[in-house]
Design a protein that fits this description.
The protein is α/β, with parallel strands linked by helices. The chain has two domains: 151 residues, 3-Layer(aba) Sandwich (Rossmann fold); 114 residues, 3-Layer(aba) Sandwich (Rossmann fold). It is 39% helix and 14% strand. It is built from nine helices and nine strands. Helix 1 packs across helix 4, helix 4 packs antiparallel against helix 5 and helix 7 packs across helix 8. The chain is globular, with a radius of gyration of 20 Å. The N and C termini lie far apart (48 Å).
Length: 296
């Protein structure tokens, strides 16, 4: 469902095809999804650039100016973009699509975040299919003449997600059940873990490096050591310094960088959501298939 009101159009600093409706997403992952559904009928851009942190993003005046020319803003919801409501109001109450609307969230279970939704539903291909359906409906409302193209694009992309779903299941079946523990900096893999039979451990529940406390660190070190987890990871939008220390003290390897809240640049390992997922799972399989922990 699209919410919002009327707004006036202003000039945009970026080159935009004025003949096409313009969709502005809050971050790069959603922009990739939107482009796959939109095809060539809509102009799709992301507010946040590749490599930037989405949770605590602070929109700039130029972001507001860019948004004021948009026909639709697409956000994730589940509390991910706490800045979005003020942002869209400043831009002129742009109609907004919340992709997680109607989805049953997984709730965070600890500390100040207890009871709040984990926002990272796009990390499970199964959940992403619901995002695609939301985009198809919203784009059809925005551009009714493109309905057939949006439907065809959505169907084709969901086929890709189903193929990815099967790839993930097959890859993870090769990992012994006792080793299926995904350790990252942020608790960003809850939906992936829930849907694909993984356990999850992390330094903080939602991205905030300031939340790293001695208690959290010690608990994660104990988990990695006690479960004999050979390899642990961190995400691209935060520093991996503390996680490397966890690996060293727990006698595990630091296995590399996951992509979650941002795609990579075009020449990086995760320029699309499908490639992001395949990169992450390949890294995870390689890490969990490694021998006994030997240190970082």
């Amino acid at each position: 469902m699209i919410s919002g009101g009327c707004r006036s159009r202003s000039a945009d600093q970026d080159p935009v095809d004025a003949s096409k409706p313009e969709v502005l997403t809050t971050f790069t992952v959603l922009a990739d999804l939107a482009r796959n559904v939109a095809g060539d009928r809509l102009t799709v851009r992301s507010i946040v650039k590749p490599g930037s942190e989405i949770h605590g993003y602070q929109p700039t005046p130029s972001d507001v100016q860019r948004a004021s020319s948009a026909d639709l803003i697409v956000e994730n919801g589940f509390g991910l973009e706490l800045w979005a409501r003020k942002f869209t109001s400043s831009a002129g109450n742009i109609p907004t699509l919340t992709l997680s609307e109607g989805m049953e969230p997984l709730l965070i279970e600890e500390d100040a975040y207890a009871g709040k939704p984990n926002p990272h539903a796009w990390m499970s291909p199964q959940r992403t299919m619901a995002y695609v359906d939301q985009l198809q409906r919203a784009f059809t409302e925005l551009d009714p003449d493109g309905a057939d193209q949006f439907a065809s694009n959505a169907l084709a992309y969901k086929k890709e997600l189903k193929r990815l779903d099967q790839e993930l299941r097959s890859a993870l079946e090769a990992i012994p059940p006792e080793r299926r523990v995904l350790v990252s900096c942020e608790g960003a893999f809850s939906y992936l873990a829930s849907d694909y039979g993984l356990e999850e451990a992390y330094l903080w529940p939602v991205n905030a490096e300031s939340q790293v406390t001695p208690r959290r660190m010690a608990r994660l070190i104990d988990t990695v050591r006690d479960r004999k987890i050979p390899t642990i990871f961190c995400e691209s939008t935060v520093s991996d310094k503390v996680q490397r220390q966890v690996a060293s003290e727990a006698g595990a390897r630091f296995g590399g960088t996951f992509y979650v809240d941002s795609l990579s640049t075009a020449d990086g390992p995760a320029p699309t959501l499908l490639k992001l997922q395949r990169h992450n799972v390949a890294l995870l399989i390689q890490g969990l298939s490694a021998g006994a922990p030997v240190g970082n």
